[in-house]
Structure prediction request, 123 residues.
Amino acid sequence: QVHVVESGGGMVQAGGSLRLSCVVSGTIFSVNAMAWYRQAPGKQRELVATITPGGTTNYTGSVKGRFTISRDNAKSTVYLQMNSLKPDDTAVYYCNADGVVLTPTGISDFGSWGQGTQVTVSS
Prediction:
């Protein structure tokens, strides 16, 4: 079983910063791609940033230059440093991870979501 838990959300004024964390735990054999998504009220969930085990990153255009995704492979943790926040960044932020989990009979692929953390940016 895999658990994905985000933390670090909150309310900030425009121009402020927040750092989100996401820990993946369980009978993990390996964690592959990790990503942050967000969903604003009335909108579809969108991909914000991804990072591979080797550290290759990708960002959606609206956050480039403001957000930084990073990971600690030893801790199965991914971070999202968010600077110069804007009201349009207001959303629930979700962590997603995929990889391989140990099972009683061997190994199995997993892809799991966290419960989300609210980020609110006031103008």
Observations:
- DSSP finds no helices and eleven strands in the chain.
- The chain has a mean pLDDT of 96.
- The radius of gyration is 15 Å.
